[in-house]
Structures are given as structure tokens and as C-alpha cells.
What we know:
The complex is a heterodimer.
Chain A: H1 3-21, E1 24-33, H2 40-51, E2 60-66, E3 69-72, E4 78-80, E5 96-98, E6 105-112
Parallel strand pairs in A: 1-2
Antiparallel strand pairs in A: 1-6, 3-4, 3-5
Helix pairs in contact in A: 1-2
Chain B: E1 2-10, H1 13-28, E2 32-38, H2 44-54, E3 61-67, H3 72-78, E4 84-88, H4 97-106, E5 114-118, E6 135-141, H5 148-151, H6 153-158, E7 161-165, H7 180-190, E8 195-198, H8 207-222
Amino acid sequence: MHETIVAQSMLEAIITEAEKINAKPICAKITCGTLNAVNDDSLCFAFEAIAKGTICGGMKLQIEHKPMQGRCRNCSEVFDVDILNLRCRKCGGDDFELLPDEPLTLQTIEFETE
Amino acid sequence: MYKKIDVGRKILSANEEYALKNSRFFAEHKQLCLNMISSPGSGKTTILTKTITELKGKIKIGVIEGDIQTDLDTQRIRATNAPAIQIETQGACHLSAAQVGTALEKLPIEKLDLIFIENVGNLVCPAAFELGETGKVAVLSVAEGDDKPAKYPAIFAKAKAMLINKIDLLKVPGLVDFDIEKAKADARKLNRDIKIFPVSAKTGEGFADWCRWLVESVSNLRQ
């Protein structure tokens, strides 16, 4: 629901980078953890709308979602957490520590250069 | 020709900077600040007015009230004589750290032991925006269903405490199907250390334990 704020922050960050090297950005890759509650369609829609008329107009976004991860308190295995089956995939134990969620991160930007 | 650059920059870093500033402020003042998050209608404001009344003479509470529109909740808090600062988000689905920072300047901090932030009623977005608080409190009312911790894991995974409100409704047979043990177990699977307080803000049931935890949390921080 807060994708517009995310899109606005991304736009500002991309424009800053584009101005540094004076090139037109064409694609950006972002990663985010499950708990950030980012919806791909909403984010792309919001970004497209606010990027119009800027150097980012027509840019493509690639959004990679990182699963929640847990560390088993029994066998120390680090595993992707399945919310419908909250168990360690190695030993089957249900006592685990939820690891911090991956923050929303702007990873890479591709530019078109002459 | 194409050129690819690595940025590796947090997208919400602007909010995080403000959150860090707020958390330093709370640490310097040894101030407990709890960010209350729930669906609309779970009873956050009623819990707060009841808590303020129950703790009168023991600890002094101030409130930062987030609402999409209107200051109705702030008026309810002020009726208890506790200081309350209103943030009207005008449509935004969560409070931001910068808004909380501005509100903090208006609260009489030196006279307070505990600050509650009543976030916008929403179980999703407020969990994704750190405000610099010392802890989050999730509120779930029995009418919403016992599957909420499993369906909205973010807030239950991050919260220090969870209040299960409106438990008076469970006493009327056939009124609501809410398995309190299931809700507790699901929350604890995500967050082993979460404190759980079943309460009724209407009847006051369960408030003794909740209020005792608040008083202890304040005194632990002040030691």
C-alpha cells in the first residue's frame, strides 16, 4: 500500500546516479524481503506514473523477493521459512529464530551510453 | 552500449535516518516508546485510555496519535488528561519516522515515563516503517480471527508484546470462533519471546498483567 513512497525514493536515487554519469537509465534491479509487503504490480505502476517526463521515463524494474529466513535453535540450519509449515527443513524442529528481513535495496542500474 | 552500476543502497534510507535520530533521542532520555500496531477497530484507543487511567499516579504516559483523517482519537486521549499529539497522515497508510520526530518536539518529554505511538490502523504497512521506537506492540481483537499471526507475520514477528483484546466476547457461547491458544502458538512460532496479554479494554480483565509489564519495562530502562 506504500508503493508510491518506495517508487518516489527509488526515482530520486536513480536520478542522482544518472546525473553523476550523465546517461539514461533503462533498467533497475531491486531486492526486498517478504516482510516489506511490496506488491510488484503496484510498485511498477507507481514508478511508471511518477517517472513519466523524467530521465527515468520508460524504465524497466526487476523486483526480486527474498524469502524469510530462520535459524534452527536445535541444529543451527539456516532455512527459508514457509509460513504454512513453520519447521526446520533439516531436523523438523519448530524452535527457530527468525532472521532480520532483507531491506528494500536498489541493487543495480543499467544505463544506455553512447 | 550499456553500462551497469552497482548501487546497493537502501531505498527507505531517508526514513531510517529519522528513525535512528528518534531512537537516539529515546536512549538519551531513557524513554520507553511503544509503537502500537493493529487493524482498524481492534481497540487501540480504548486500550490506551484504559491503560492511562489504570496507571494514573504510577507512570505518566504521553501519546502520539496517527490517523488518516480526524482528531477523534486524540480527543479521547486528551479526555484522560494525558498529553496527546495528533499526526493526520491525510491518506498515508503508516506513520513515518520524520512525523514522529516532529511530534516528539511537542510532547513534554521530561514529565513522561512512557510514550505510546498509536499507528494508523493497518496490520501491513506500519510494520515495514521503523519509527525509532523502543518496541512494537501488536493488538489483535478476537473478532478479527485467530489466523492473523499466520496471515500477517511481519508485525507479530517484530513485536515485543501482543495484546489479544475483546476477550469478554469469548464468554458468550457461539458469538466468535477464536481459538486463543492457536493465536498464541502461531505468534510464538514466529517470535518465541513475545509477551502475550489477553485483555478486555471494556471490562478491564487482564489489565493488571499488562500494566505490571509496562511499569517493569519503564523501571528496567531507568535503572
